[in-house]
Design brief:
Helix content: 25-40%
Distance between the termini: 22 Å
Structural class: alpha/beta
Number of domains: 1
Number of helices: 4
Radius of gyration: 13 Å
Strand content: 15-25%
Shape: flat
Order of helices and strands: EHEEEHEHH
Largest sheet: 3 strands, parallel
Strand order of the largest sheet: 1-2-5
């Protein structure tokens, strides 16, 4: 799963995902998250903090994940700059 500037806030129920990851059975997936410290902070929540919560849940459940944190805001600049590396990481061969 690839998430650049993920909306894990109170928009369309996105805030429940960290709790679901912690409480449900682990699934055979890889997750790449990207967000910036200057992402949106509004009545729906704080995007940076919600992405950190998602990262903490993935770590707790021992998922194969990567988190790329930057300084950017609510846009695709950082994610676009690292898209090729994100995809290479997601599609890498299984370790033997």
């Amino acid at each position: 799963m690839l998430s650049h500037v993920g909306s894990f806030t109170n928009i369309r129920g996105g805030y429940v995902y960290p709790t679901l990851i912690r409480s449900e059975e682990k699934r055979p997936i890889r997750v790449f998250l990207q967000d910036g410290k200057n992402d949106a902070d509004n009545q729906f929540g704080n995007w940076w903090l919600s992405n950190l919560q998602m990262e903490a849940a993935l770590k707790f459940k021992a998922y194969d994940y990567q988190f790329a944190g930057g300084e950017g805001g609510h846009n695709g600049k950082h994610g676009g700059a690292i898209l090729a590396d994100s995809l290479r990481w997601l599609w890498r061969a299984e370790a033997k």
